[in-house]
Amino acid sequence: MDTPEAMKRIMVRESIEAQCQSFIDEKIDRYLEIEHQGIIGGHYFAPASYECIYLYRDGYFIGAVMMSHSINEGIIKFVAERNGIQKNKTDGTSKTVEDLINELKEKKIISTNCGDSSMRIWRSYRNDIHHMNPTVANIDFKKLAQQNLKYLSTIEKEIFDYKNNNGAIAPTQPKYWDIQNDGTTTVFLRLD
Predict the structure, then answer these.
(1) Within 10 Å of residue 93's Cβ, how many Cβ atoms?
(2) What is the pLDDT of residues 82-110, one digit of tens each?
(3) In this structure, is residue 2 part of a structural domain?
(4) Position 3 in a domain
(5) What are the Cα distances from residue 68, in Å, to 18, 112, 168?
(6) Distance, CA of 48 to CA of 50 (rounded, Å)
(7) Which runs of consecutive H residues, i.e. helices, occur in 84-185?
(8) 176 CA to centre of own chain
(9) Is position 5 within any domain?
């Protein structure tokens, strides 16, 4: 005789399996349309970027948008730090992410395409969403998540571009990879 807990477990399993089967093609399409960078540096924002892809794939669009904002900011601050860009203005106040993006573009540290992608994420209702302002009721989160993930893909492809050198990764911009004395580096794989 099954206990009420065992019965509930069976019902939940059947429900989850049915949901997975009914939305599998949509999930595959969403995953493939992003064209994310398969390998990035193993930095503090890499696990979040990985999870963000899966949030979008699985239809959690609000979460994907919120994470895309945070990952974008993390990458821009990381790039600024790796290039010796001060995070404070001369008056001692902190530069905004927008300030950093503009400075990175002006100094040609990032391309116009990368900077514009980052700025588009930055301006994609960031404050309204993070503070859950009433304006969020009118946002098409599915469309916004798709756009932001594509922009994030553009950024990651530029920062973490690499060539395959006889099976070894040869980073295009080594300063963004923590390469050890023996030539190895920590990476984050997203190669489903």
Answers:
(1) 9
(2) 999 999 998 999 999 999 999 999 999 99
(3) no
(4) no
(5) 29, 19, 29
(6) 5
(7) 97-106, 112-122, 126-130, 141-159
(8) 16
(9) no
Domain boundaries, position 21? 11-189
Q: 93 in a domain, yes or no?
A: yes
Q: Which helix (H) or strand (E) holds 41?
A: strand 39-41
- Domains in the chain, number: 1
Query: Under a CB-based contact definition with an 8 Å cutoff, are residues 85 and 100 in contact?
Result: yes
Whether pTM exceeds 0.85: yes
Residue of higher predicted confidence among 186 and 151: 151
Percent of the chain with pLDDT over 70: 99
Number of other residues whose CB lies within 10 A of the CB of residue 161: 14
Q: Where are the alpha helices (DSSP H) in 23-132?
A: 24-34, 46-57, 61-82, 97-106, 112-122, 126-130
Structure tokens at 42: 């193993």
What amino acid occupies position 136?
A: V
Under 8 Å between Cβ of 34 and 50: no
CA distance 1 to 105: 67
Q: How do residues 113-157 score in pLDDT, each as one tens digit?
A: 999 999 999 999 999 998 999 999 999 999 999 999 999 999 999
Q: What are phi and psi of 68, to 5 degrees?
A: -60, -35
Residue among 66, 53, 42 at smallest CA distance from 153: 53
Residue 128 and residue 136 in contact, taking contact as beta carbons nearer than 8 Å: yes
Q: What average pLDDT does the chain have?
A: 92
